[in-house]
Amino acid sequence: MNSSLSRSAKQLVREGLLDAAKMGAGETYLGALGVFLEGAPLQIGALATVPPLVGAMAQSIGMRLSETARSRRNLVALLMRVQGLLLIPVGILPFFFSSGSHAVTWLIGLVMVYHITIGLIAPMWNSLVGDILPPLTRGEFFGFRNKWMAITTFASVLCAGQIIHWFSKLNLAAWGFSLVFLASAGARVASSRAFRGVEDVGLHVPHESKFTFWQFVSRARRSNFVKFVFFVSCMNFAASISGPYFAMYMLKDLRLSYAEYTIVVASAVLAQFVVIRSWGKMSDQFGNRTILKVCGALVTLNPWLWLVSANFWYVVVIQLYSGIFWAGFTLAAANFVFDAVTPQKRARCVAYQSIINGTLVCAGSCLGGVVVHYVPIDLVANLGLWVPGSKFLALFVLSGALRAVVMLTLFPAFKEVRQVESIRSHQVLIRITSLRPLWGGTFAFITQRKGSAGDAGKEE
Fold first, then answer.
1. For the chain, which terminal residue's Cβ has fewer other Cβ atoms within 10 angstroms, N or C?
2. Could you give all domains of the chain from N- to C-terminal order, each with its CATH number?
């Protein structure tokens, strides 16, 4: 492997670490900021899902930019800087509006613009990175990169949460939120400088590789990749019914302090750090579909676990469980795209996938908000065991049930796209629960090519 690729991979890791600091100190606390500003449940749900939907729609523009831009690298770096600067008004928002619906409405608007930059970046980033990383080591690379991103996210979540907690004790929570979002802005601007060190590979997209969104969707019955897209998107639909409301449930109904909330959030990140590189290695060896099968089945149980107890340490254990298996699911889903799609079509397929996924995630959150608003408390108060009566319990039941339906009906429809070793599901669990993270070989896989799979298994 050439030295420029090695430098590119290292720069991608640096960019990822700074992006993780942005996510841990900023994006993680958007929901908490909405709760602090006294947003209603529907507003909190909209904050979590409407901006990502708008960002997903923006990916259609990002797709075209990827196919026409003279330099994907330079344009992505510029948009990263803009994205970082957008976090500054988010941080100072509490000083311009008192708590209430108007403040949260402005917050949703700012986060929408922020997610538009994400939508513009994603197709170009995926297209460029897919071109410069060797196919047979992508899983290992992203496992390594995501492991260190998880460490950074964990540290930034803890630091940011502690800052907010300290300031809230002084009745200055607004200052705490402001500091962490300003730090998040600085981290994202710095990540743009790291990304400029990535190799700038040109891309030519022939006319026959271009197709419309409706042509993409119309292939749902015969395209393996489109079947995969609908499976992942429907799983995210089911997850978004409850996901956006966990922050409100913990802070309002369970009455967790900001410090306790930080520990709960950080627990999931810690679990990802422990296992993420192992998931990457297994996805290279045994295929992404196998990882999706195991992790998809186990994250189905996750919302039901919240019905058992409200004990703080039990909640931490749930988050550890969630972090382990959502880490594998998201990593395998991302890697499947690289395996299944040719470079010329990658940006377009990523954009179309994001539109479908964003639409369903937003629909799931809206459904959750409607359920919370209209379901009678007497009907759902006894759904849990040792938990306080809460309307959110209905979301946990519904979310788990729909995840099970998706796994049973949509998962069998798509196939693995490359030749991999076979392994039984229980053997995957034994490997991952042995908690032996792959610590060594920091860049060995970057500087030593294992061979090239080419595009033999690619369909799109």
1. N
2. 3-197+214-434 (1.20.1250.20)
